[in-house]
Amino acid sequence: MTLVEQTPYDRLTREMEALKAQSERLIAAEGAVQRHNEYLKALHETALGLIDKLDPQELLQTILERAVALAGTQHGFFYLREPDDDYMDMQVGMGFFSGQLGRRVHCGEGLGGKVWQLGRPLVVDDYQRWSDRLPDDSLDRLHCVVGIPLKFDQRVRGVIGLGHVAPDRRFDAEAVQLLERFAALALLALEKAELYMEVRRELGERQKAEARIRESEQRYRNFLESSPDPIVVYNMEGTATYVNPAFEQTFGMSRQEILGERIDFVPPEAWPETRAAIDAMLHGQTIKLFETQRMTRDGRILDVQISSCLYMDDSGNHVGNIVTLRDISDRKRAERALRNYQDQLEALVQERTGELNLANAQLGREVEDRKRAEKALRRREVDLQAQSQHLEEVNTALRVLLKQRSEDRDELGNNVMNNVKELVLPYLEQIQQTRLSTRQQTLVRILESNLNHIVSPFVQRLSARMAGLTPAEIRIANLIKEGKTNKEISGVMFISKNTVLYHRHNIRKKLKLAGTAVNLRSHLLTMDE
């Protein structure tokens, strides 16, 4: 049977099927629209909730809570990056990621770093097997994850990350689109909060600055009010706008009568130098310690020292000048008294200088006389030194001559004594041993006495060396020294041999030789050396 021959029932069946398919499409579209409306409603509510959050940390927490609610999960994190940093820190974490707070990633590391690098959303179906995952065993429970960038002016400020720990859960394209829109709203809210915090910070700094300015103004006002020097502030027209208490006290003028007026306290004779100082100040010069005069209300003239400078407003325009005056009248009076005293001192000094010049001239003459006397004295000392040296040389020569004479005399005495011993005494002894008449014996004794008289000086020198010996002991000591035996000595001196022995014992005792084995003749010979 052909299509033309189809029954009405067949046509009705086909129409019913077409209507059913259309109804199903309408139901699906209505469900999609309903879901979309629910997403838009949730997004609107989220936007309203974010707009009211101004604390950055509280806002991040709210953003993450809204994001996990929109995506239908319980696990999420929020990475945030400062503009100049090359890393992101996990500021907020929920569910699985609550234990990951503080984790830091660089560009390209893990899900957050990869989203930062790509600048677009990224969905990973299975994080466990993903090649770019972080090498951390604590992340093995993760399965499907999605990362949404927060971009402003093509720069990524942060990343919102969401995940499932159930293997069968996924994030579809519609959820990703909704999260992208949410991320745009979240970025606006975050920038608003940051702007608010910046405004609050600037407002706080401005309030602090204003407080410091007020404090500084108060400090300067206290300084001006407590300054012991008179201070007056003028505007550019020369009208007084401020005077301190010291000004009122010094010049006898009250604030009420001079504020807003020109102060007439410059004496006529001080106007030329005052005008010159004002012109110099208007040309940018600072007046420092300018000395002039000013007049008080009761007509007294004060010597003052002035310092002045211009001051400017916030735009840099000159609006007036500040003048500080110091009363130096007492100092000027002291200076004048000091100059008078100095003049008197100079006169006294000149008078004293004249006297000192005369005294110096007299002293100079005395010094010249003394120099001449000292010069003559030095010449005399040179002459005396030469004479002294000559006398010393003469004395030396005389000492040498005297020593030579003494040695010659000793040698002569020794020669005489030796000659007498060798040439005279032996023969005299032989004569005495012969038979002589009385007259001859008398002549021999006279001859012996004369010989003793001749050699007596030499015997005296021998006696000096033999102090403490008697004359007989000296003669015996001399004969012992000549080598005479006891018998020969007794024969020469006409004494017994025992007497000779007695004298020999006394000689040894006086020469401290008693009880020793020292030869008496040898000891006597050494005494002549």
Number of helices: 14
Widest β-sheet, arrangement of strands: 3-2-1-6-5-4
CATH architecture of the domain at 53-200: 2-Layer Sandwich
Helix content percent band:
55-70%
Element-level helix/strand string:
HHEEEHEEEHEEHHHEEEHHHHHHH
| CATH level 3 topology of the domain at 53-200 | Beta-Lactamase
The CATH class of the domain at 53-200? Alpha Beta
Strand content: 5-15%
Instruction: List the quaternary state of the chains.
Output: single chain
Output the CATH homologous superfamily of the domain at 53-200.
Answer: GAF domain
- CA-based gyration radius: 72 Å
Shape designation: elongated
* Major sheet details: 6 strands, antiparallel
What is the strand tally? 11
Mean of all residue-level pLDDT scores: 80
Distance from N terminus to C terminus (CA atoms, Å) equals 195 Å
Which regions are unreliable across 5 or more consecutive residues at pLDDT < 50? none
Based on helices, strands and strand pairing, what is the structural class? Answer: alpha+beta
